[in-house]
Design brief:
5-stranded mixed β-sheet, 144 residues, 5 strands, Protein-Tyrosine Phosphatase, Chain A, alpha/beta
């Protein structure tokens, strides 16, 4: 059974394939309505347990993931699961790390890496991907 977000819900971004993902910041309350089936949390320390399946990637604020292979695997998992599940991507503010992750997931979905930051800023949040090294990380990200 397919379980996806409402495309009009706050923080939901649609990829070119039609897959929907929700980005959010932990500093905001959990949105009303449906909860994620799977969440990817990008934080400098392990988050508190949640009622849904979640994966944590060690990713300090304003930085890049500590383990790039683990991050790539987690981003691919989020993209694959978003075909049939409600997937949430979140960091503290919901902009830098979340935007960077969404841009990388967009690359998996076929968006060219050099266009992925612009795509996420247009379809998710204009403040997404905050630092020069986050932009460079996305520009060098490959789907292969």
């Amino acid at each position: 059974m397919q379980s996806v977000w409402d495309a009009d819900e706050s923080g939901v971004m649609q990829l070119p394939s039609g897959r929907l993902l929700r980005g959010r910041g932990f500093h905001k309350p959990i949105p009303r309505g449906a909860t994620p089936d799977f969440a990817l949390y990008l934080l400098g320390k392990k988050p508190a347990p949640v009622k849904w399946e979640a994966r944590w990637v060690l990713w300090p604020d304003f930085r890049l993931p500590k383990d790039r292979d683990d991050a790539r695997d987690a981003l691919r998992e989020a993209w694959l699961r978003s075909e049939t599940e409600r997937v949430e991507i979140a960091c503290t503010g919901g902009h830098g790390r979340t935007g960077t992750a969404l841009a990388c997931i967009a690359v998996f979905d076929g968006v060219p890496a050099d266009k992925a930051v612009t795509f996420v800023r247009e379809h998710y949040n204009p403040r997404a991907v905050e630092t020069p090294w986050q932009r460079l990380y996305v520009a060098r990200f490959t789907a292969g």
